[in-house]
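Hi Y.,

Following your request, here is the sequence exactly as I used it, all 323 residues.
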Amino acid sequence: MQTNEELFLTIENYLAQTDFPGEPELLYAPICYSLAGGGKRLRPMLVMLACGIYSEETQQALTAAAAVEVFHNFTLLHDDIMDNADTRRGKPSVYAKWGQNAAILSGDAMMICAYRLLAEVPEQFLPKVLKTFNEMALEVCEGQQYDMDFETQQKVSVVEYMHMIELKTSVLLAGSAVIGAILGGAPEEEQRKLRRFAIELGLAFQLQDDLLDSYGDERLGKPLGGDILEGKKTYLMITAMSHASEEDRDVLRYAYKDPHLSDEEKISAVKAVYDRYDVRGLTEQQISLRFERALAQLQSLDAAPERVKPLHDFAVSLMGRMK
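Below is the corresponding structure, written out as tokens. Let me know if you'd prefer a different format.
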């Protein structure tokens, strides 16, 4: 059995060897640029690790692992257009580097390439893998629409926010884990447990991402306070709004667009409200709760602990990003 580090390198090598034509350059160069951007390869790792719990033949999951990674990066190209984002993973976004039209068309091509890769999974698994992939892909789009709806929605509840991030973030992790389990020959009950594991892990991961934006380390690849400056309705913002006085709610509502404040002053004003109501502590509690639920699903799997351990260790590593 490969170590997680070896598995990561296997995925990197496979993606690096994925053959994209050289022409037309403005179609394929952004795809290669996007896929070479690094990252944790979270979704393909989940495919491979879930498969490895039930089978030694993890190589048969490589094309599906690549497919979910290509699909994920396709969504990032289009997300950056919708968010008018100049950077991605500490580098210029495809949208910033090549423009909107290239980001749209290259993203479309990536979606097609994802299905082309998916078509290479063993024939006996293809119908179920394709069904899982399609459900996952559509739910991701639903989550993105809810996220955009929240931009103009005056009030968003914690329940609504959690539903949105489940669709936008968690279902792609869940689909990846289930596809890996299918390819490993896992029974349906095991597939359901792995789906629940990945849903909870995805919620914990996104909440941690929200937290890191305000309380993380700039060495993680993006400047602090970006969500605050954009006025995004994150878990921290929604939780603060639900606890704050009316005076503090006005700070949360309006500080980010006050022309008399510098960016640093806007961030400081909002974080002062967060600190007043221990929003950081409340968020950390929710992260811990979701992560504990995820691990409980892993512990309930009908598989030898040594086969589950690589996935357990990978999950733990994802939740240590503040260090």
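The radius of gyration is 20 Å.

Thanks again,
Q.
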